[in-house]
Amino acid sequence: MGTNLPRSTKADERLHRVIPGGAHTYAKGSDQYPAGMAPVISHGRGGHVWDVDGNEYIEYGAGLRAVSLGHAHPRVLEAVRGELDKGSNFIRPSIIEAEAAERFLENVPTAEMVKFTKNGSDATTAAVRLARAATGRKLVAKCADHAFFSTDDWFIGTTPMNAGIPDETTEATVSFPYGDLQAAEELLQRHEGEIACMILEAAAAVEPPPGYLQGLRELTTRHGVVLIFDEMITGFRWSAHGAQGLYGVTPDLSTFGKALGNGFAVSALAGKRELMEIGGLRTDRERVFLLSTTHGAETHSLAAAMAVMDVYRDEDVIGRLHALGDRLAAGVREVAAGIGVEDHVVVRGRASNLVFGTLDEQGRPSQPYRTLFLRELIGGGVLGPSFVVSAALTEADIDKTIDVVAQACTVYRKALDANDPAPWMGGRPVQPVFRKYA
To answer: Which family does it belong to (predicted)?
Structure first.
């Protein structure tokens, strides 16, 4: 399974012929997978997907963490179908926009207003623009330890893929490390009166140190800086109410997406009324062009979001994600230790948001060893660029994944003993998304 992909190979060539990069999201590109082992998906159901060659896979990280309930979830599809016959886009707001906004604010009680759009980058960039307008300041401070915030220039200019972005744009973004209050305070003091906002994920691969988020809240308030939580991932994986609900720290603005629509395109900017209204009609201040997207309030996507929130309300989705993740992490660590690669195949992160690291003989992150590991996973019927679970996976899926990981660890051990993963890579190594040249 997963090693003979003639139709996927042809389909991938079609994709590259008409789409730059062969995918509409760089993280889905064929360069992220071993040579000749980039399945092109036919369909998905629950926690499994099938490629165009007919191979079935247990899938992790579904939709880049967007499909937390599993593919084609019946309650979400029922809600979407109920809207399709009514039309999807009108010359004035539809009533479902009010219903969805009210439902969202019930779900995230720390926010007072919300505006929907289609993708996370629009929401985070709107938050940054709003913070700059509210404070009259130029600089944006982003957390250096969190991987991604936006496709827009203020963030992408700080990555190796900064072609086409003027230096003066990049210079308006500064960075701070996660978990270090002293470093944050020093940054605010160094740029006193210049920083409009600090944007970060409340948590990612590691939990916040005790008092860190509370301290950041106090610091930003004292320095007149807008605190923004990027809740694209944490929003429906840490808690249905967001990481802000879990940790008890209320930001000025927050952004949600991904699992909010279980695969349907919907994201949100939420926050304090006094800030959000600057982008509205009930303000005496100079107006901010906050979010104004033709398709931002498509009715079926808002219906999907409400259905997702209903499922989270009625079922213990968060508990399910954590239980599955705990089972997977424990199993992977056990088999890795049994084969003697526990210092090289490592599982990190919250149980609902697991990633894995592939380390070389010296304990350094290694793309060649990642290639070897992914190759063994795919060959065993596991499509897993991460170990991020969906609630649709079963305990049997987790146990089978652990068995496949055990096989992969056996090959990993051989490569370590040979001090060379190349014979098991099948070709060129997988590549990081953010790199200067293709």
So the answer is: Belongs to the class-III pyridoxal-phosphate-dependent aminotransferase family.
Q: Among 12, 44, 48, 146, which Cα is nearest to 384's?
A: 48
Over pLDDT 90: what percentage of the chain?
A: 97
CB 308 within 8 A of CB 262: yes
Token pair for 205:
């691969």
What is 347-387 written as a DSSP string? Answer: EES-GGGBEEEEB-TTS-B-HHHHHHHHHHHHHTTEE-SSB
Summarised one tens digit per residue, pLDDT across range 73-106 is: 999 999 999 999 999 999 999 999 999 999 999 9
On whether the CB atoms of residues 2 and 57 are closer than 8 A, the answer is yes
Query: In whole angstroms, what is the distance from residue 181 CA to residue 68 CA?
Result: 32
In sequence order, the 6+-apart residues with CB closer than 8 A to the CB of 162 are: 156, 170
d(CA 123, CA 101): 15
What residue type is assigned to position 145 of the chain?
D
Amino acid of residue 151 = T
> What confidence tens digit (pLDDT) does each residue in 232-261 have?
999 999 999 999 999 999 999 999 999 999
**E strand or H helix at 402:** helix 395-418
- Report the distance separating Cα 160 and Cα 191, nearest Å: 25
What pLDDT, on the 0 to 100 scale, is given for residue 3?
Answer: 66
In DSSP notation, 268-317 reads EEEE-HHHHGGGSSS-SSPP------TTTT-HHHHHHHHHHHHHHHHS-H
* Contact present, 241 and 317 (Cβ < 8 Å): no
Distance CA 90, CA 83 (A): 13
Q: What is the pTM (predicted TM-score) of this model?
A: 0.96
Name the β-bridge partners of 142: 175, 199
Q: Which residues of 122-144 are buried (b: 16+ CB within 10 A; e: fewer)?
A: bbbbbbbbbbbbbbebebbbbbe
Is residue 95 helix, strand or coil? helix
Per-residue pLDDT of 299-333, as tens digits, reads 999 999 999 999 999 999 999 999 999 999 999 99
Query: What is the per-residue DSSP string for 127-141?
Result: HHHHHHHHHT--EEE
Q: What was the pLDDT predicted at 205?
A: 87
Q: 36: which DSSP letter?
A: T
Structure tokens at 143: 């957390």
The tokens for 335 are 């088999």
